[in-house]
């Protein structure tokens, strides 16, 4: 579906992503994990060609991403970026309808179907009562859910999410990933999720990529990747890995070393 | 507005609702148009004037009144309307594109760019009237691109940075204007000072025609990009992700807005604050959807400048103020309020 082949992204002289390959198949949720500045967001943006690759290429359904019109890409790939600043008052409904832009003419109006779809995703993200509220009056978490709702409203086949749970409370973190997981399971979508939450990744992801200094350190199912050795290598941190008592997924607990002692 | 359709209880902009808004504003514009044509140093009678405006003959107007209505007031009101349309819609376009409710052609120095273009045309190609709007357009476009590049910086355009860039471009171009003024003969300087402040009294039929055509074309182009602007208003990267051809839309809007400002300045100088006041009031009452804001700003802007000009030519009659003085008196306090509110 979406495939990155040996991509390298340079920012000036600095290499942000080095020779990374990634393949997201229908139904698959891939988590990208790594320390700050590891190149996770850059990699995600390269998958949408909003960052130019220095080497390598990104293929969507076997064709280079650059060969698609911008609208055609937007119908297939949806992005949840880290939050943008809102200077004009728009309602939640107006905001979410932005996700329907690529489906009709650039100067037209939304159809009844667009509005129905938007209502649907507002229900899914538990924002149905917020339709007429203004985006800049929402809490950080509510706004984040609206951003995810807009991405879902695009009906895309591939979701690229950059820390979609960063501003969310515990319950909504799980809701959000369950939604994305649901799209993968029910509609054969694929998702690539950048996150700092290793335990959520362990529970929801099919594959995990560990990234450090722009390079792939490991790739595979969570139990293979979330090992104390690999995590130490990536985060310079001792961790304890056992099984989650309910789900059986790997459970990662950092072991903080304070003033040299355990 | 209309609450008949169950699916639109939110007041969301739809085609029908926009048509309704346009209808109401057109009606308002027609009323303002008629009132402005009656008022002045000599008042004209309502029914006879309406009859004459509707194309009737023998309406009971004296030949002097006929001349006042058709040769003096009508062209001037049409010009005021065209200028208002141009500046208000251009302001709405710049605001959406630069993601800043304070962006305004006059405050960003874009009107000054157009003024410099017009003056260069006057000094060097004085015989060719059409060279003025062409050079004004070029000046406006150049000033737009400079302000945009200055404001953008590495971290994106903050409101403060944009206004500062506007101040720099404005003051630089003001010096250029002073310099060009010294090249002119002394008899024309006074009329220039008036023109620089925004003056609707000294135009010609062809400049009026150009302003009206530019208003139609420019507003049309902006309106066609309104849905894209809705997304770009919330951030260019998000807009790109959602399928907007960001670079193409940005260039199109820059060109259309420069066309609007250029035509307006070439015919009537720099009328300030119209592009700030009108879109602000429109957004306040009708929401931020640019498919409404741009067209509604054009119509309301026309009415606003016609009213301002009627005040300018009646308040100290028989003498006149430049219309820009009136719009600035209304606009500057609003700017301060918006800045304070952040």
List the helices and strands and how they pair.
The complex is a heterodimer of chains A (262) and B (342).
Chain A (H helix, E strand, L loop, with lengths): L1 E10 L2 E11 L4 E5 L6 H7 L8 E6 L2 E2 L5 H7 E4 L11 H6 L14 H13 L15 H14 L4 E5 L7 H18 L2 E5 L3 H7 L2 E6 L2 E6 L1 H4 L2 H8 L3 E5 L6 E5 L8
Parallel strand pairs in A: 3-8, 3-9, 6-7, 7-8
Antiparallel strand pairs in A: 1-2, 1-4, 4-5, 9-10, 11-12
Helix pairs in contact in A: 4-5
Chain B lengths: L14 H24 L7 H8 L9 H36 L11 H15 L6 H22 L6 H24 L3 H11 L8 H20 L1 H7 L3 H6 L4 H23 L5 H13 L3 H25 L8 H19 L1
Question: What this model shows, in words?
Answer:
- The complex is a heterodimer of chains A (262) and B (342).
- Chain A has 262 residues and is α/β, with parallel strands linked by helices.
- Chain A has one domain (2-254): P-loop containing nucleotide triphosphate hydrolases (Rossmann fold, 3-Layer(aba) Sandwich).
- Chain A has helices at residues 40-46, 70-76, 92-97, 112-124, 140-153, 170-187, 198-204, 222-225, 228-235, and strands spanning 2-11, 14-24, 29-33, 55-60, 63-64, 77-80, 158-162, 190-194, 207-212, 215-220, 239-243, 250-254.
- Chain A has a six-stranded mixed β-sheet, sandwiched between helices. Chain A has a four-stranded antiparallel β-sheet with strand order 2-1-4-5, covered by helices on one side. A two-stranded antiparallel ribbon of chain A has the order 11-12.
- In chain A, helix 4 packs across helix 5.
- Chain A is globular.
- Chain A starts with a strand and ends in an 8-residue tail after the last strand.
- The model of chain A has no long low-confidence stretch (mean pLDDT 90).
- With 342 residues, chain B is mostly helical.
- The longest helix of chain B is centred in the first third of the chain and has 36 residues, at 63-98.
């Amino acid at each position: 579906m979406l495939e990155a082949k040996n991509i390298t992204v340079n920012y000036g002289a600095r290499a942000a992503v080095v020779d990374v390959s990634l393949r997201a198949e229908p139904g698959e949720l891939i988590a990208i994990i790594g320390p700050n500045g590891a190149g996770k967001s850059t990699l995600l943006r390269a998958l949408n060609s909003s960052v130019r690759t220095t080497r390598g290429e990104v293929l969507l359904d076997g064709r280079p991403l650059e060969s698609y019109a911008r609208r055609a890409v937007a119908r297939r790939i949806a992005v949840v970026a880290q939050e943008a600043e809102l200077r004009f008052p728009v309602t939640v409904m107006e905001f979410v309808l932005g996700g329907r832009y690529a489906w009709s003419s650039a100067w037209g109006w939304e159809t009844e179907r667009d509005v129905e779809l938007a209502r649907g995703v507002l229900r899914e993200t538990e924002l149905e009562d917020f339709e007429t509220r203004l985006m800049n009056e929402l809490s950080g978490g509510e706004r984040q859910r609206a951003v995810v709702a807009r991405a879902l409203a695009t009906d895309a086949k591939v979701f690229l999410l950059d820390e979609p749970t960063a501003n969310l409370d515990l319950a909504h973190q799980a809701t959000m990933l369950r939604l994305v997981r649901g799209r993968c399971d029910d509609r054969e979508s694929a998702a690539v999720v950048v996150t700092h939450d290793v335990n959520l990744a362990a529970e929801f992801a099919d594959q995990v990529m560990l990234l450090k200094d722009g390079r792939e350190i490991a790739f595979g199912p969570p139990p293979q990747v979330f090992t104390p050795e690999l995590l130490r290598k990536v985060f310079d941190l001792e961790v304890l890995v056992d099984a989650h008592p309910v789900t059986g997924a790997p459970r990662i607990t950092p072991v903080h070393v304070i003033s040299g002692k355990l | 507005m209309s609450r008949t359709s169950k699916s639109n209880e939110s007041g969301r902009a739809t085609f029908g609702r926009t048509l309704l808004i346009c209808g109401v504003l057109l009606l308002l514009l027609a009323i303002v148009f008629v009132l402005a044509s009656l008022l002045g140093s000599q008042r004209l009678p309502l029914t006879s004037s309406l009859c004459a405006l509707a194309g009737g003959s023998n309406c009971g107007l004296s030949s002097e009144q006929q001349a006042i209505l058709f040769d003096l007031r009508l062209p001037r009101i049409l010009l005021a309307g065209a200028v208002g349309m141009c500046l208000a819609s251009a302001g709405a376009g710049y605001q959406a594109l630069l993601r800043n409710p304070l962006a305004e052609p006059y405050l960003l120095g874009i009107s000054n760019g157009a003024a410099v273009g017009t003056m260069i045309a006057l000094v060097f190609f004085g015989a060719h009237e059409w060279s003025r709007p062409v050079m004004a357009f070029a000046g406006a476009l150049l000033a737009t691109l400079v302000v945009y590049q200055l404001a953008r910086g590495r971290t994106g355009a903050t409101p403060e940075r944009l206004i500062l860039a506007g101040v720099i471009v404005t003051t630089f171009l003001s010096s250029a204007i002073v310099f060009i003024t010294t090249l002119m003969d002394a008899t024309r300087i006074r009329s220039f000072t008036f023109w620089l402040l925004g003056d609707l009294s000294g135009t010609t039929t062809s400049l009026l025609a150009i302003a009206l055509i530019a208003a139609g074309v420019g507003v049309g182009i902006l309106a066609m990009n309104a849905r894209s602007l809705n997304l770009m208003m919330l951030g260019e990267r998000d807009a790109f992700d959602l399928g907007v051809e960001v670079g193409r839309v940005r260039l199109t809007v820059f060109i259309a807005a420069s066309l609007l400002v250029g035509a307006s300045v070439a015919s009537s100088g720099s009328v300030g604050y119209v592009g700030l006041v009108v879109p602000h009031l429109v957004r306040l009452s009708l929401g931020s959807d640019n498919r409404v804001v741009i067209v509604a700003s054009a119509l309301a802007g026309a009415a606003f400048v016609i009213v301002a000009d009627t005040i300018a030519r009646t308040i100290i009659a028989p003498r006149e103020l430049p219309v820009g003085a009136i719009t600035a008196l209304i606009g500057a306090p609003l700017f301060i309020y918006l800045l304070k509110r952040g």
